[in-house]
Write a structure and sequence with these properties.
The chain is α+β, with helices and mostly antiparallel strands. It has a single domain (7-96), classed as Alpha-Beta Plaits (2-Layer Sandwich). It has helices at residues 19-34, 63-71, 75-87; strands at 7-15, 39-46, 53-60, 88-90, 93-96. β2 and β3 (53-60) form a beta hairpin. α1 runs antiparallel to α3. It is globular.
């Protein structure tokens, strides 16, 4: 079995409502989801050039773990998602992780290659 077995939800988001309320709701949802079994990591990005555009990458142990977390949402959490739907245009999809690479650490006395 490959070491890359996680599932990542990649969600392009365009905010069409109040951006302050959007960030509040995202913080609430992120806190809730990060406590769920199978959650691995969340990364949240905002465009430098288009302030209303975001990407959310939520990594899960597998697709079933995400689905189980979604199925356990309380009425309060479902309310956050309903409000989020009114503030945004989203198009989430799920992706298998096929490869990952991090930068190589520099060793003492070694310089980074020129760019």
């Amino acid at each position: 079995m490959s070491e890359f077995t996680t599932t990542t939800m990649i969600n392009p988001i365009t905010v069409i409502g109040d951006p302050v309320r959007f960030r509040e709701i995202i913080d609430l949802i992120a806190a809730y989801m990060s406590e769920q079994d199978g959650f691995v990591r969340l990364r949240f990005f905002q465009s430098h050039t288009h302030a209303e555009k975001y990407y959310m990458l939520a990594e899960w142990r597998d697709l079933d773990a995400h689905q189980a977390a979604a199925d356990r949402r309380s009425p309060e959490v479902l309310g956050w998602f309903a409000e989020l739907k009114e503030l945004t245009e989203v198009a989430p999809d799920f992706f298998a992780t096929l490869a990952a690479r991090d930068s190589a650490p520099l060793t003492r006395g070694t310089q980074a290659p020129p760019r």
